[in-house]
Specification:
The structure is a homodimer. Chain A contains 11 helices and 12 strands. Chain A has about 350 residues and is α/β, with parallel strands linked by helices. The first copy, chain A, folds into 2 domains: about 1-100 and about 260-345, Isopropylmalate Dehydrogenase (3-Layer(aba) Sandwich); about 115-250, Isopropylmalate Dehydrogenase (3-Layer(aba) Sandwich). A 10-stranded mixed sheet of chain A has the order 2-1-3-12-11-4-5-10-8-9, sandwiched between helices. In chain A, helix 1 (about 15-30) crosses helix 9 (about 290-305). Strand 7 of chain A pairs antiparallel with strand 7 (about 150-155) of chain B. The structure holds 3-isopropylmalic acid (2 copies). One 3-isopropylmalic acid sits at the interface of chains A and B.
Chain lengths: ~350, ~350
């Protein structure tokens, strides 16, 4: 009989609450014969305060021994900025070589958007996850003095760029519109930019059916609000992808709906799925957190593990739930989770 | 009697057309006793094709000998990406130490915006102009091979950050709302981020009346579309400023209205004023280009040179012109320039 060994990192703030709903919907969606084994990891602000650990080697080793990871949210104002991000979140992405950071953006019917005219938005950002300015290759000298110099180095390799670009072509090729847009800033960041553009053009020759396009990142933000329907699949660097996917979330109903997968397509390490939003300590414990982004991340997880039908059922459930929200009274985190689980199993 | 020695770089594409209107309005706005001397520089794609020059030392020297520079737009698809940007536009910003890249964003009445609900937008981005990932400190090895590595280094100095942060506090302090937001990504780019944040906090102690705020760049893009009225003055790094100001332009009527100043506040070198938009070769020569961004850049230029009343007259003229556009038939570049000049002199 089949089984899924799932590592769960609820994390901080609303992380706990939304992950609980994600697991609820996951159980409802899975076929009877699939055994779900979960193991929860206490990682995040609390653990750091108690022990000083962000992600010890023992946890990292034990996490490896799973089919996938579900993460809620990491971060708390009581922890200095960067400690948990670099020491836990990014450490996981790097250690498990999550080079495809997959972030779909879809404006569901009836979902509020700040954009007038409700454009038809349905695109996927393939954000590189292991290189660029995120590598942590920087430093400072004469720190804290009037002569301080601080650097951040963006590292880009042909190996790293080609594999994510190829993944993006595959995804574009599998979609009806078959369109792929590269976003970079190759008129200023000429070295990294040329590497990206050359590989993008070369790999494109293997995908003659995919229409391609290039946009500078600044111009891309304009189209995100004036013409988002022009995008199908976007491939971009780690930092540009970070910025663009928050903007994409904002125009498609907000960060409460944005799902993401940190994927290692080779399967050498478990992939990790998490909502794009943060730990939102201001609303933690109030029942106001929307678990939909986590539930959609569970759909990405299922799809990655080969449960495509179950993933589709979750997406349909979310779409119907959102479509009916307009008229309904606000619900708690738990109520939304229950409603989604009911739709999925019904 | 007073005089202004103005260097003019029309540049490529629509640059020529919009600069002509900018000069028209400038002449209309200036008091009778101010003598305007202009000298035009042939720089851009044409010159590069003819001679291989982007910005020779002789031109750079001669440009220095002016009170200000008005630039139209630079760039053409026939020139490899980066050649004119790095060799001309950015070279000017670096050579003349334009560390304050000033970009106001205002949603004028009656101007179209992609945002539902027409929020009240009136903020200024103070973008650092001489550091960060724009310094051109990068390279590649094993170029073009499967083992290529390409880098881009973001350089940040206490000197460079403090002067632009101080300028931003001054501007915030002079505005009614007195609010300054730092935008960075200090949870990931920890070295540069901490330098920025520490200086931001320290300099802030000298401006007790200014309310301060910090946002990660990804979160800032969300607020640009969901709550842009929360911003008054924003200070940020060169690359984040590039991205945010295009998005700001998009939500306040489009890139056809966005003005900018590349300012050296010390006066050691001439400051340069330019529309945020590019050379738009697709509409060059058709009379479709909107010269308003250039005209508003002329207002920034006048204000920088101490002609505050004249700058205000131009802004009022633009506001009235935009307010009446809704009902009017589309006008040519020239017609808009004429209308603005008439309002300014009337
Ligand atoms: C929390 C932070 C490290 C992270 C990132 O920058 O990638 C977040 O913004 C995201 O997009 O997942
Ligand atoms: C053309 C390019 C070099 C420039 C920049 O990136 O600064 C432009 O986008 C701008 O914003 O003025």
């Amino acid at each position: 009989s089949r089984s899924i060994r799932l590592a769960v990192i609820p994390g901080d703030g609303i992380g706990q609450e939304v992950v609980a709903q994600g697991l609820k919907v996951l159980s409802a969606a899975l076929p009877q014969d699939v055994k779900l084994e979960t193991r929860s990891y206490d990682l995040g602000a609390q653990r750091w305060h108690a022990t000083g650990d962000t992600l010890p080697d023992a946890d990292l080793e034990s996490l490896k021994d799973h089919d996938a990871i579900l993460l809620g949210a990491i971060g708390d104002p009581s922890v200095p900025s960067g400690v948990l991000e670099r020491g836990l979140l990014l450490k996981l992405r790097f250690a498990f070589d999550h080079y495809v950071n997959l972030r779909p953006s879809k404006l569901f019917p009836n979902t509020p958007t700040p954009l007038a005219g409700r454009p038809d938005i349905d695109f996927v950002v393939v954000r590189e996850g292991t290189e660029g300015p995120y590598v942590g290759n920087g430093g400072s000298m004469r720190t804290g003095t009037p002569d301080e110099v601080a650097t951040e180095v963006s590292l880009n390799t042909a190996h790293g760029v080609e594999r994510v670009v190829r993944d993006a072509y595959e995804r574009a090729n599998a979609r009806p519109r078959k369109k792929l847009t590269l976003v970079h800033k190759n008129n200023v960041l000429v070295h990294a930019g040329h590497l990206w553009k050359n590989i993008f053009d070369r790999v494109g020759q293997e995908y003659p059916e995919v229409t391609t396009d290039y946009l500078h990142v600044d111009a891309a933000t304009i189209f995100f609000v004036t013409q988002p329907e022009r995008f199908d699949v976007i491939v971009t660097d780690n930092l540009f992808g970070d910025i663009l996917t928050d903007l994409a979330a904002a125009v498609t109903g907000g960060i409460g709906l944005a799902a993401s997968g940190n994927i290692n397509p080779s399967g050498a390490f478990p992939s990790m799925f998490e909502p794009v939003h943060g730990s939102a300590p201001d609303i933690a414990g109030t029942g106001k957190a929307d678990p939909t982004a986590t539930v959609l991340s569970v759909a990405l997880l299922l799809s990655h593990l080969g449960y495509g039908d179950e993933a589709a059922r979750i997406e349909t459930a979310v779409a119907s739930d959102l479509a009916e929200r307009g008229t309904a009274a606000p619900r708690t985190t738990d109520e939304i989770g229950d409603a989604l689980a009911a739709r999925v199993s019904g």
